[in-house]
Task: structure prediction
Amino acid sequence: MTHLADLPVWAAIPVALLLLLGASLALIGSIGFVRLRSFYERVHAPTLGTTMGIGSVLLASMLCFTVLQSRLVLHEILIAVFMIVTTPITLMLLARAALYRDRSEGSDDVPAAPPVQTGAPSAQDTAPPV
Amino acid sequence: MKRWLPYPLLTAALVAMWLLLTESVALGSLLMGGVLATVAVWGFAALDPPGGRLKRPRAAVALAALVMGDVARSNLAVVKIILNPRKTERVSGFLHIPLDMRAPYGLATLACIITATPGTIWVEYNSANNTILLHILDLVDESTWIDTIKGRYEKRLMEIFE
Result:
């Protein structure tokens, strides 16, 4: 990070803007944790940071280091792929755990369990092959 | 050939991942990546994954571009909802959507798309009647959401996977 002063202005401005955008989205997502009312609403908040937030930061990183090293730096794409594949699993796990708890407590706020229960794990539990 | 290389596309993707990780296209990293990818794909095949393949790669690329645009738009929508100072009569809630698609990889992709898009999350899949349960942050109009999921994503995924 010592060579950042070498970054030309035409690259520094979009890098700064992208970083600011990504950081703002992550911050707004965190504010959502406080402002939204129920657990199911709060689950939506962090997706801001994990989609466009991380996307902007990765774009900024790619641009910055491509210009500094004068060659393409593409392994940020890997970070993006790993984020896309892993975050939905975490979010679904949280939402399903909450739904299971609310149903077993007999809460009226959640839809009832389907009448036909299939014991086998179904397709949405499986991550797509990468 | 089939026995040694059961999933050529997956193998190629793993080699590409290795080359990106090591950031070199030297012969050494190509060989190392090839060996690792082949062994990893044998491990994947040993899991006996469900069948099904990508039938229209070009449609998949088009869908990825579409989803990226949608994700950007829903980001702005959710930002507006969170920063809205008044707690207006916004309704959030659960929504059942009947599906026509049965392809397991199509369903998995749909789950990733829905959950990665801010404002919607996939909660449950009922394989008995092929219905999914979503939670939606801004449930203004149920039929609009059903049309979006079915017309915009499911139709394209069925083209790609079925």
Remarks:
- The first helix of chain A runs from residue 9 to 35.
- Residues 122-127 of chain A have pLDDT under 50 and may be disordered.
- DSSP finds four helices and no strands in chain A.
- The helical segments of chain A are 9-35, 39-42, 47-69, 76-104.
